[in-house]
Design goal:
GO terms for molecular function: antioxidant activity; oxidoreductase activity. This protein has 440 residues and is α+β, with helices and mostly antiparallel strands. It has seven helices and 27 strands. Helix 1 runs antiparallel to helix 2.
């Protein structure tokens, strides 16, 4: 998938004290600060879709601005849970989609009243062929003057991407649990230089929620994020990052040592902690000792041994990672509700047809709300590689073992059981080339 950023969902982290716990629960204040490189533009909002439903955009501008050549309108949904809830109340989100999302929704932070959580832009060219964007104003119409894209670069995972960037105003509304709030802020609208905006357009806010957390006489920078913009709620796809190595940058990959989902307990300095509260605007988090004890996190990167597991597939067969030693194994953490996961299926099928057999296997680990629709989907799509079904909030053993909170997540494991590739090397546009280096 030719997206500059990966849809990623929630995270948490913290430091603690192995000594006597005086002063907990701890309330950490998080102020809005300018992002000067603390996090890459990975934590962004995808413009233009990737949903498993057909979205509607009531009240948004629908006509291409006069003078815009080869123009196209893009919409970004800042708060998907609010959008689904109000769309269900308005009648254009069906019960099935609402029920899938309702398991993840914090009802206290949702209202059925219409909240403008949609960012709308029109991207195209001026009369000289230069790339420009028109942004939506507060009155619901496009502003009169365009903003020009300029070439720049973005670094991520030791790769440098050439992108086109336009710095734009990107206001929106969100419900803070009591009232609807108007949020204003600058953001970068970016797309890959070697692709069209329709393939890779992303919105990345400049302000980030940061603070400091002092534990056991050590002070660390911490950052709260959910797709780079509020609301932040205590939900699956919200993350708190902590700069454990004190290098001034946060490792935002879910499998790294500095990224933690806010819905799960975590271990720092030999003690287990949990997030008990998050201000909806992200201005603070509250941390207390967790009754559930967990082990310290282990970063899963190339060169480390892949954690072993044994599980039952939907076909009833028991499968073990250790039993697959001697062949390359790709782990695909996905869900039928995940647009980018569905987009990647054709390439996964190509890979399985080309490389599958004695030297290569794919194992799908699916995060679903119910079993029956998932099994029907496998039959409809003719997905033949082994699938492990984990029901949300009931059984997430393998996902927790691999610290998965963003979908899709991929790992490639070599015949000796060592992780050799993960992340973008296994993305839709790179998968066949990457596998070819190992299997041809």
């Amino acid at each position: 998938m030719k997206r500059l950023l990966i849809l990623i969902a929630g995270s948490l982290l913290l430091a603690s004290c192995a000594k006597e716990h005086t002063g907990h629960p701890f309330k950490v204040e998080l102020n809005l600060k300018e992002n000067t490189g603390q996090v890459p533009p990975l934590l962004a909002i995808s413009m233009g879709g990737g949903f498993i439903f057909e979205p509607e955009y009531p009240g948004e501008p629908a006509d291409i601005p006069e003078g815009l050549q080869n123009g196209e309108i893009f919409h970004g949904i800042i708060d998907l849970y609010q959008y689904v809830s109000q769309g269900h109340a308005a009648g254009f989100i069906n019960n099935s989609i609402f029920q899938r999302n309702s398991a993840l929704i914090d009802s206290v932070a949702i209202t059925d009243e219409w909240v403008d959580v949609i960012i709308t832009v029109a991207v195209g060219e001026d009369e000289q062929g230069k790339p420009v964007v028109y942004v939506e104003g507060k009155d619901g119409n496009f502003l009169d003057e365009p903003i020009y894209f300029e070439p720049t670069t973005v670094e991520f995972q030791d790769q440098v991407f050439n992108v086109m960037e336009a710095v734009v105003p990107a206001p929106f509304e969100y419900f803070n649990g009591e009232e609807t709030v108007w949020h204003e802020g600058k953001a970068s609208l970016m797309y890959l230089s070697d692709s069209s905006p329709s393939e890779s357009l992303q919105l990345f806010y400049h302000k980030i929620r940061m603070g400091t957390w002092t534990v056991n006489d050590q002070t660390f920078d911490v950052l709260l994020s959910k797709d780079s913009a509020p609301p932040y709620r205590k939900e699956l796809y919200t993350y708190l990052y902590i700069d454990l190595d004190e290098d001034g940058k946060f490792d935002v990959m879910p499998d790294g040592m500095e990224a933690y989902p806010v819905t799960e307990p975590f271990n720092i300095a030999g003690e287990s902690w949990k997030i008990t509260d998050i201000a909806i605007d992200g201005s603070s988090v509250t941390i207390d000792v967790s009754e559930e004890k967990v082990d310290p996190k282990v970063a899963l990167r190339p060169g480390t041994e892949a954690p072993d597991f044994t599980a039952q597939t939907v076909s009833g067969r028991e499968i073990s990672l250790k039993d697959l030693r001697g062949k390359y194994v790709m782990l695909d953490f996905w869900g039928t509700w995940c647009g980018p996961c569905i987009d990647a299926l054709p390439v996964l099928k190509q890979a399985y047809e080309k490389f599958g057999g004695s030297d290569f296997e794919i194992i799908g680990i699916a995060n679903e709300v119910r079993a029956d629709p998932f099994e029907d989907f496998l039959d409809q799509e003719n997905i033949t590689w082994p699938q492990i079904l984990e029901i949300y909030e009931e059984n997430n053993t393998v996902q927790e073992l691999y610290s998965v909170n963003a979908y899709p997540t991929y790992y490639l494991i070599d015949p000796e059981g060592e992780i050799v590739e993960y992340g973008m090397a296994l993305s839709e546009e790179n998968l066949l080339e990457t596998l070819g280096r190992y299997l041809n």
